Amino acid sequence: MYCRGIRGATTVEHNTKEDIFEATTDLLRAIVQKNELILEDITSVIFTVTADLDADFPALAARKLGWTEVPLLCTREIPVPGSLGMCVRVLLHVNTLRSAAEMQHIYQRKAVVLRPDISVN
What we know:
The protein has helices at 17-34, 59-64, and strands spanning 2-11, 42-49, 72-76, 87-96, 106-107. The chain is an alpha/beta fold and 121 residues long. Helix 2 links the parallel strand 2 (42-49) and strand 3.
């Protein structure tokens, strides 16, 4: 068994609780589906948001999906000039027998520009 990282990102249209929740929920569901994860596979999750998103914690979406035993952490993304705004990023740590190359990283909405080389949308 290995601990692997799965990356993902999405964007929201407006800095509202509803938009952050909807976009994060869609992203987490896509990561779970594409990687055929079960809840017990997920070791921990780190969320980052850009400085223009402060209406709510993206981790709340994971909690509402039932991820009550998974350690979650929210933090701010580094504010690099010219970087993509209104963005929620996520790093899931998962236990798996799969290789790192088999992990499917998900980038949705405007965030597809971040990693088109590894993204499965």
